[in-house]
Amino acid sequence: MKATDLEPDRYPAGAVARPDRPPLACYANYFEVGHNAFEFLLDAGQIEPQSGDIQLMSRIAVGPVHAKLLATLLNQSIAQFERAHHDIPDIAELDGDLSIINPQEFERRAINARRKHTAADGSAHPNRDER
User: CA dihedral in degrees (112, 114, 115, 120; nearest 10)?
Assistant: First the structure.
């Protein structure tokens, strides 16, 4: 079965669906992005907020054209999510380069942004334990 048989507008011609093998997934709340003259490197992992320990789990290497395509797709998906659900809070007002923020500062900004968003729209998240 071809993927185009399932959703013809979503997959390129010749794409093959693999319903017997769903893609692997892992949760990530920490990212590093780097590049050289030929490719972009996207590292994903998890950060433990209390200790600041980081465990990188996955690296994706893409060419510049595909990196730009990924950025466009992600921006479109975020806009669609915000139209359907709610605005996603920013990591506070960024006055510097994210790459030089230590993990504890990044997590502090993320928590503050979520609190600011929750206070602004009056919604509560009773199942979240934000320290």
Answer: 120
